[in-house]
Amino acid sequence: MKKDEEDINVNRKSGDRVDFETPFIQSIYDTIDYLRDEATYILSDLEENVDDLHIEELGETAVDHLSDFVDDLSQLKDEVFDGDDLEVVRDMKASLNRDADYVRRAKRKMAKLSQEDKMVDSYKINIRIIELCNKAINVNSKNNEAYYLKGRALMNFGQYDEAINQFIKSLALSDDVEVRLAIGDAYRFNNKPIDAIAQYEIVLEKDKNSFKALKGEAIAYFDLKEYEKSNELFKKAESIDSLYGDAQKIWDECKKNI
Questions:
Q1: What is the pLDDT of residue 140?
Q2: pLDDT digits (tens, 9 = 90+) for 21-56
Q3: Fewest beta carbons within 10 Å, which of 64, 128, 135, 158?
Q4: Could you give the CA distance from residue 230 to residue 94 in angstroms, rounded to a whole number?
Q5: 215 close to 243: Cβ distance less than 8 angstroms
Q6: Which candidate, 225, 227, 156, places its Cα nearest to that of 189?
Q7: Do the Cβ atoms of 1 and 26 come closer than 8 Å?
Q8: What is the pLDDT of residues 100-140, one digit of tens each?
Q9: In 3D, which of 48, 226, 69, 70 has the Cα closest to residue 128?
Q10: 3-state DSSP assignment of residue 154
């Protein structure tokens, strides 16, 4: 590791990381590097979509990122430049960990996938979600939300085995119902209905009125051609919330086989 004075003036290729001995200098460098990364992403997005620009989406993205930049700079000012406690400086690297910020951005991207907007590039968004989650995991390997969101993005690519691995990592850190449901769905989409049912049953043991678990299990039993059981579960799900789309079509087909 070089001394700080040497590091500041070191010749290096773009993208190479510089490590400083002083936590204070390292924290400032990490913050600038983080902001530069986000700015590069915005400019790349503009360049790729300049011929087919969606003004409303661009405006929303710009406001989101600018707001994040202001938060970052404000945090840097409050925690370092206005701090008179040496402990603040020593803890700077930890206090500026970015995993929560990366996860927040990934969640925002994931929310866009549920919007019925033809301008939304689902492939690009899923790639970005995975990138953001990887960044969060690099900062904090115990961020369960990062593994969960990465798993959902991988599911959207049909990479079910890898998605399940990510969900299991998330589950090991926090036993969350949504993660259990996601594992069940991944098994079901991967043509493993028995494994899917096992996950849905765990959720139903905690909440017997879980609409998502009942619906998922009903579809899994349909895939096993156990139509009576499937119909029973569809009825329970329907009593809680309305079935629609593919679930309704599968139930209609199920009733024809009884």
A1: 87
A2: 666 566 666 666 666 666 666 666 555 555 444 555
A3: 158
A4: 50
A5: yes
A6: 156
A7: no
A8: 888 988 998 899 888 766 666 889 899 999 999 998 898 88
A9: 48
A10: helix
